[in-house]
Protein 1
Amino acid sequence: MVRIKPRSLRPGDTIAVVSPASAIDDDRLGRGLAVMEKGGYIFKLFPHTRDADDYLAGSDADRAADLMAAFDDPECAAVMCSRGGYGCSRLFPFIDLDRMAASGKMLCGFSDITVLHLALNRRGLVTMHTPMPITLSYEREPWVHDSFFRLLQGDPTIAPEVPRAETMVDGTGEGELTGGCLCLLCDSIGTPDALDCRGKILVIEDVDEKPHRVDAMLTHLINTGIIQEAAGIVVGEMTRTDDLSDPTMGGKSWRWIFEDRLGKLGIPTVVNFPFGHMKTMLSIPLGVQARLNAGEGTLTYLESPCAEA
């Protein structure tokens, strides 16, 4: 497989904004884009970016058309998803993933965008797990914005003020970064673009999942044998999971569940790595080689995620 790195961005570049999953309201879209505009970027909103149809941002065909048009548009240097939610997996019958990867465009987003990261990484394209307009519309620590803008320009370096992860299983591991939202990683199993952990560093996070469902998803990854092939595991946060504990099913915390399920695998593992749906979110590249030092709680990138501008 040929590795395809997007070119690094620079202020003045035009970024396509699309909504391939759920709808975003105008207020959050505007506030999120205002943050990006301060960084010097220009935006091109595609025709159905503001569409809404219940839990989707318009029809599958329209969302797919915008996504393909954004990757095909020579005016746009990158493609940013307005938000996650749900809906990206419904687009696969309507999009050409090979053409999207071959374009070399930078894809930015997370949450439901996980399914696009998996599919495009499998085709060689390095992608960016980053905040989106909906997440940028909320107040964040300054280093969150700094991490985002630096990654757009090809620098994934983690600043000293960023909290280190906590050791769950000591050790070191090297490999390509893969992963994203836990429920979508599980949903991918059995599809042509299923999660592949062989010799890779798996990053995991999620939001609004009940503790017993977190247990079920981790157990599924173990029962398939997929997660045991990982060279390292980086856990972010199961945001609001502990608040959703069902009193009729006990009150185990999500951290206890991860330790119970993953702590016995012998794979270098850290927890509370600052990425995902948590307020303090790093921007990280997917599809690049990295080194996890679980004892020190650090993730180091072994290559640039971008081609030179």
Protein 2
Amino acid sequence: MSGQRVLAVRELTAYLQRLLAGDGHLANVWVRGEVSNLRRPASGHLYFTLKDQVAALRCVMFQGRGRALNLRLQDGLEVIARGQVAIYPRDGVYQLYVAEVFPAGMGLASLALRELAARLEREGLFAPDRKRPLPLLPRRVGLVTSPSGAALRDMVTVSRRRFPGIDLVLAPASVQGENAPQELARALDLLGKLGRVDVVIIGRGGGSAEDLSAFNTEIVARAIYACPVPVIAAVGHETDLTLADRVADRRAPTPSAAAELAVPVRAELEERLALLAARARRGVEHRLQMARTMLERLVKSRGLARPQQELYYRQQYLDGLEQRLLASWQRQSGAREQALQLLVARLEAASPLAILNRGYAVCRRPGGGPPIKVSQEVVPGERVEVILSQGRLQCQVEDVKAGPACQGVTTPAGEPCK
């Protein structure tokens, strides 16, 4: 034994504990077996053994976990338990610290889905108090579904029938397959950030549990939870219930029903507005009639005989204010009209047409282009177009002379050009 270190029991146990804790597979393991040696001490913890034909595993389920257990454990019951494998130092044995227990007839996929649903529920994603109300009259409705599916056609048809002309924004995404969860989450994120929508419908038509599996993923559930506007989930048929349905603000049994929830009937809104307008009009008329009756009663009272004369004075004062206001408005209107006429005159004076009317002309090449300002821009024999105040001349240049523009030229009035 020379050179060999002797370990204390606690040291070896601690070493084994570290080995087990560092194994990720043992941190969340599923074990199937038959319950035996079940004990329920006063502490509230559950102690039992899972066994099969050749092996046994000690298990403990603490009081907090056991209180949430929906299954009644008893010896001889075959179950699937999920938990963490660790060593109990006092006895030096490994055991399973159980978090959840399910009947053995459930598959691992169903167990994983139940575990995910329980975790999301503990985080508050399904809480009823966080559900947002749907807008009464959305300006724009976002749709997250397959562009080739019947669900899209149904939602468009129902929306157009209920409120013709309403804006629908489609964020296309696969609704089944390996890439469907990521595409659905990305479409929700894009609509929330860039779609400028008031409500979103996410859904698809019916199918098997495998077809609907994309809507039972954590990434889609969290994308619905993070969406800044209310979300309606319409996945499958009425009997199908996915995580997307549970986390959404409203659940619809079918895509068509989701469109009915999101889009109001235009005729019903118009009828409701008409009723409200009629009620408001009747209310105003009733208030006016009451005020008129009260005023007449006050006018006829003996105590307010002289105030009636004061009312006449006030009326006369208001008439004077009205006349002053009208005169002020007329003065301001006249001043503005005069300023406008001055601006019009200045614009007309600066207009090229006004210059042409004074006898000047514009010379340019045929077919358009800028005016010719310098004689060197053309050569003898070249054709030019001369624009007058009325009409145009098509001319041919016979000679080109350089020099000051005004040399030997007089204005239309006969005065020398300066």
Protein 3
Amino acid sequence: MNTPLNSAAIHHTAFYKFVPLGDPEQVIEHLRSITTDLLGSILVATEGINGMVAGTTAQIDVFQAALLAHASFGDILFKRTECKTPPFGRMKVYRKPEIVPLGISGVDARNTGIDVSPADWRKLIAEDDVVLLDNRNSFEFKLGRFKNAVDPNVTNFRDFPRYVEAHIDEWKAQGKRVAMYCTGGIRCEKTSAWMRDLDMEVFQLQGGILNYFKEMPDAEKDWDGECFVFDNRIALDTKLQETKTTLEDVYGGEPDGEWRLKRAKELDGSK
């Protein structure tokens, strides 16, 4: 059983990896065995894993070492941040059809677009032939975004492909390149693989927005607002510090805001 965390010593680590898993149930059991002292959420599918966990520095160190020791996850990357607010109220490891639900079958997310480092990203998005796409939900875009980014106006990640299909011929005719970003990188990994199948040149921000904030001390030059995170911290600024933004601030006025608000509040484990 998980025990409450000391809020003065919490670290949050996020990770994912697209890798074929022949026995997801075995992976689930392994993950459960190495997260008994942690809180968070890990999705497992035949295409890989996607997770966020929180614990003390020592607990996170032990977990990361154990996951790296697994044959399928030896090169997995972790994005760690310090927390003031406990991000989660429980630990859950469960199986899903996809670790990120694009809703298009047959996409091999290992065949991804071109990774661009944060420093090179700043140069790339300033170029005239680049379409800068925000690969997140519209409520996330409203809270914060890269300057000059395009909002595809989607309420669910599965809606994103329809926006691309409606514009891709236009981009090609104009000789445009697409640069995409999302919170931690996983949505861009899968979408860029699909877009490559459509013969579109795609670039993606390495490690996502949170990595940009970590690597670029002056990230505010390129970013307006905050970054929504899917845990109890709600939003971070460009210094990776929690803000005073509330769930009501985020979801107020959204078409499905009531449902999202109820679902988000379940993260504290009280329901």
